[in-house]
Amino acid sequence: MKVDEAKCVGCGNCVPVCTMGAIYIEDSHSNVNEDECVECGSCIRFLEVEGRNPTLVRGLRKVLNKVSLQHDAPVGVCVAGALYEPTLEWPREIRRNFSNPAAVHSATGIPGRGTDEIKTNDVNEWLKENEALLLVEVGRPGLGAHMRDIEKITTVLATLGVDFKPENPITLLMTDTKTGKLNPDTLNEKVLSAIIEIKIDLDKVPVYLKKIKETVKDLPTVCSLVVAGRCGEQGDIPYLDAVKEAGLTPSPGGKTNLGLGRRGGSE
Amino acid sequence: MTNSLHRRGSVEDLKGDFIIFAKTDTLNVKGSKPGLQKFFEMSLKYNPVSVGVNHDYGSVNPSVEQKYAAIEDGSIVAAVFDNTDDLIKYLQEVKEEDFGISINISGLVEEVNECCKNAGITRHSIEQSLGVHGATDRLSNRDILEITTMCGHGMISFNLIKKIIDYVKLGKMTPEEGALVLAKPCLCGVFNPARATQLLERVRVLG
Predict the structure, then answer these.
(1) What pTM did the predictor assign?
(2) Which end of chain A, N or C, is less surrounded by CB atoms within 10 Å?
(3) Nearest-CA neighbor of A231 among A207, A190, A202?
(4) Could you tell me how many CB contacts below 8 A there are between chain A and chain B?
(5) pLDDT over 50 at A110, yes or no
(6) What is the set of domains in chain A, with CATH numbers?
(7) Is B54 helix (H, G, I), strand (E, B) or coil?
(8) Which residue in the set A19, A195, A225 is minimally distant from B133, CB to CB?
């Protein structure tokens, strides 16, 4: 994200909107810390352009200041439309691809940072009984993650011999799925979050979860862990014992695929 | 992605927060538009607190009509409910319509299972959060996390929530007005403004 300094009046409305806290006021206008900005586009979407003359606004603000008065722009507006999105090139473009939900990921062809997980498992039967899907969403909630930190996890998982989900955007950035190494061009890029997806046998869940916990504990960011499985005939949850063995407890909330989908849809 | 999976809150709070959504696969995407439109239309009868279509990203604050018009083959269509009574009635109708499209519900697992049983459905697959690990000391407080995690894409910043909480406490905004501002960055419409209003009211009164 960029700021047109000639237009910005320094109202500061964009500062709290930034998901990464990357916008700050200096020299009476907004600035973007480009290392921290993940190109999510939330600021430019959230702030409606008021379309006021910036010179006039600055002048009025000075006058009001002189008589100890001030006028705050309403939350949710950019007074003169100072924000703009530059054209992004490789490797910076991956920031947008992983962080902006409106961007269709060039690798997967769908918006978002991951895949369908279990959302369509009733149709494609990708995840079978006695298998589990583990997801590590790095950077969530709210802190973001550098690719170099994500690589620390993928390389450790690779040593255990996992199958990274092939169409996952992180897998597609790997130079070698056997080592879990990511394209070195990308390592200094930061994203809002990214999801590592692996499918393993159900009985291996405790080992993998323990390894993941150990790996992420020293990272400078957070990771949200997820487990998923194919329910039994009576709808029972398959992974509860395995998760307990790893010393973890599933949250009371979750996502349930109701099993109403089928190949060919309504045809 | 895991959009609606990591919503934070007490079991009591989460009893008013259910997201039901329809999602096609490459194996049934073709010709899915009419079914998705009907799924969307039907939800409106049961008082959803929000509805969303993931392909309406181009509009700023799209109306319900604009969202409906944006539905196409392969859209993800979601409705958010704040109670299970409405959800069950909707679910029964969804089952009867037999769209052949995958339907998922995010919310309290056992409550959702009860809703499924009421509608004569046996759940197929399940996915649960195992918590947040790593540098958790860098995270904001509980109130902020409960609000920010209602947007699965992480579009509602900690700082915006802090600002709105301050405005509500100072009387510059009502909790309802604050919730609507916070709903705005959430593109896919799964943010629950009714729950956000309750949370802001709680923070306003209790500090």
Answers:
(1) 0.89
(2) C
(3) A202
(4) 307
(5) yes
(6) 2-86 (3.30.70.20), 103-245 (no CATH)
(7) helix
(8) A225
